[in-house]
Design goal:
Length: about 350
């Protein structure tokens, strides 16, 4: 199968999912009330959110530079910063393509092998996943009742009411649909497994070599504690990026540190789902559900989820444009020197 049509289909499917989720999320949303709430909000906190968001980029660049140095190469901070900014901008539009654009940008400026750069990015993703698991476990321990209630209301009850209960009551249509979906998933898995096996062995071997370089880069780090410290600071900033939003509106200012921890954990899962727009729709639903458990009305839960997502969207686009400017300025300057 040609790779480009497959990618196009994937892009269209993900975009459709995001748009459908947004449609249902905003279907009964009071936009007039949202506009009024925004007009009276204390958006001086917004500048703090943007400052902390900038610090996330700084810590991520410093951490990435450590991994690149560990595989025997050097990068300039502003080049790595531009590459990271562009990658988030690209990922916002086409999920997962940002990692590729980040590596290509650095390869263009420093002539570092692409696969070795990709290995360092994969290691970053592994570290992020492990960090998220730790945050989720911490949230489960400290906010156990709220998380269980969230799963009950937003996962178990919808599945039970829409599928299990109908099957128990003898609804053969639902049973046939469930069997059909499971069968389709199994067939797709078998098909793509066969497709992956037909991939070029040379490309696969080259990818494994790059991944191995990335994995061993952590072992070669001279300042492992500093690497862990950067990772810790990144997640502290993520926490503050959510927490500061609570104080924009009086109606959300009563939310506690525990509510912020839960929104951070569940919201990060929503953002991680590969839907265009940094979890467009999924993030809104997840955060609204969590916020309502801590006492917000549905309207205010949706308002909070919407303003947080809009704020990060604005920042991502602004930093993406800044990253592009830095990249092209450095590129043309190097061409003149060359």
């Amino acid at each position: 199968m040609n790779k480009k049509p497959l990618q196009l289909i994937q892009y269209i499917v993900l975009l459709t999912i995001g748009l459908v989720l947004c449609f249902f999320f905003f279907q009964n949303f009071n936009f007039a009330e949202l506009k009024q709430n925004i007009s009276i909000g204390n958006f001086s906190w917004f500048y703090l959110v943007m400052l902390v968001s900038l610090m996330v980029y700084v810590f991520r660049v410093l951490r990435w530079q450590m991994l690149i140095k560990a595989i025997g190469y050097e990068t300039k901070f502003y080049n790595a910063f531009a590459a990271l900014s562009i990658s988030y901008f690209v990922s916002f539009i086409i999920p997962r393509l940002g990692e590729v654009s980040r590596c290509l940008s650095i390869k263009k400026q420093h002539d570092i092998p692409f696969m070795e750069l990709l290995g360092t990015v994969i290691i970053e993703r592994v570290v992020d996943i492990v960090s998220l698991i730790i945050i989720l476990l911490l949230t489960l321990v400290l906010q156990f009742n709220q998380i269980i209630e969230y799963v009950k209301q937003n996962v178990w009850q919808p599945i039970y009411n829409s599928i299990i209960l109908k099957i128990i009551n003898g609804n053969t249509t639902v049973l046939i649909l469930v069997i059909a979906v499971v069968s389709l998933v199994c067939m797709l898995f078998l098909y793509f497994r066969k497709y992956i096996r037909k991939k070029s062995p040379k490309l696969f071997i080259k990818f494994i070599e790059g991944l191995k370089q990335g994995i061993t880069s952590i072992g070669k780090l001279k300042q492992k504690k500093l690497f862990i410290l950067y990772t810790f600071f990144i997640w502290v900033c993520y926490y503050l990026m959510t927490y500061f939003w609570f104080f924009v509106f009086p109606e959300t200012s009563f939310l506690t540190w525990g509510a912020c921890l839960s929104i951070l954990s569940i919201g990060t899962i929503g953002r991680s789902i590969p839907v265009q727009g940094a979890g467009m729709g999924t993030y809104h639903f997840f955060v609204t559900g969590v916020a309502m458990l801590y006492g917000l009305t549905q309207q205010w839960g949706k308002t909070l989820a919407t303003v947080i997502h809009l704020g990060q969207t604005f920042f991502t686009f602004a930093m993406g444009l800044i990253g592009l400017v830095i990249f092209f300025v450095v590129y043309w300057r190097n061409r003149k020197v060359g």
